[in-house]
């Protein structure tokens, strides 16, 4: 099966907008979002957030499939702006039906009233967030995504798809030529002739998104490797004192456990070998700083009150 990698500045921008919802913010992005809070509060994000229900349909036209490995933001935005108005009307209405009461809000009614106005509102929000929030840090984000692509490409070259999917994401399994997503639906798709598009994301955290609908080729969007290191320089001073006490890698893992995570997730998030993470977690567990709890077939680690107090004291 053929695989290719691609990035999407527009997709990253929309995913970042989704993170402005308080319940959607992972620990490793909180510092960044706090640093850009003034830019975000100056923008009215509701036209986009209203069409991003936590569970439900989001308009496909807002995420055009990348045709090249590194599309330009301006080209992707132009593709959205060229969306036929009938399609805008249909997909906006479908999304608002999945947004609780969204069609009864002032913004929702405006989105439904005029598809041309809706398209201008949506592209305006996306462009503003890109310019004010994402573009200034895009070199850092792009470097993380490029590093992930290089790493995954190297693994695929060394051991084929078996090696690639072995650690790409805990929800993905590759066995006997079949790619399975745990906790996904039962839909099966023959990828012969279509191949697979793999897209690392800096703002898509923990969960994997699988797209099988036209005009996309079969696509897997997954959290980029080393995600927890993306904003690490901002907290380097905070990590230093804790690192002197427990060691830098263990300090990084302990600080990163703002929410429970498995060894595999932590390894992917911090760009570490799973064995290395396991060894450090054992030390942290034996020291009473973390505890492992079994959930179905996996063990998730979380900080103990002592571990949290230690992190809070360092910060």
UniProtKB/TrEMBL annotation:
Pfam families: DUF5937. This is Transcriptional regulator, ArsR family. Residues 86-225 form the DUF5937 domain.
């Amino acid at each position: 099966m053929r695989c290719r990698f691609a990035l999407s500045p527009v997709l990253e921008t929309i995913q970042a907008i989704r993170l402005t919802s308080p319940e959607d913010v992972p620990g490793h992005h909180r510092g960044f979002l706090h640093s850009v809070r003034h830019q975000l509060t100056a923008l009215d994000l509701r036209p986009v957030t209203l069409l991003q229900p936590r569970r439900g349909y989001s308009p496909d036209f807002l995420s055009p499939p990348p045709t090249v490995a590194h599309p330009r933001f301006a080209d992707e935005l132009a593709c959205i702006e060229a969306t036929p108005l009938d399609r805008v009307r249909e997909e906006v209405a479908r999304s608002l039906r999945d947004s609780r009461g969204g069609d009864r809000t002032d913004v929702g009614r405006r989105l439904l009233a005029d598809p041309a106005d809706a398209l201008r509102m949506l592209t305006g929000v996306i462009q503003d967030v890109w310019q004010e929030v994402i573009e200034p840090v895009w070199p850092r984000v792009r470097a993380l995504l490029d590093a992930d692509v290089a790493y995954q490409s190297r693994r695929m070259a060394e051991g084929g798809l078996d090696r690639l999917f072995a650690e790409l994401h805990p929800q993905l399994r590759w066995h006997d030529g079949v790619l399975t997503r745990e906790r996904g639906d039962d839909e099966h798709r023959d990828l012969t002739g279509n191949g697979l598009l793999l897209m690392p994301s800096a703002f898509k955290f923990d969960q994997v998104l699988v797209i099988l609908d036209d005009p996309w080729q079969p696509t897997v969007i997954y959290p980029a490797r080393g995600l927890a290191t993306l904003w690490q320089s901002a907290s380097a001073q905070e990590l230093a004192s804790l690192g002197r006490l427990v060691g830098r890698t263990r300090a990084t893992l302990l600080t990163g456990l703002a929410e429970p995570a498995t060894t595999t997730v932590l390894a992917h998030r911090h760009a570490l070998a799973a064995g290395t993470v396991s060894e450090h977690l054992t030390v942290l567990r034996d020291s009473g700083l973390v505890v492992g709890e079994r959930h179905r077939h996996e063990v998730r680690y979380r900080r103990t009150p002592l571990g949290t107090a230690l992190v809070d004291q360092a910060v």
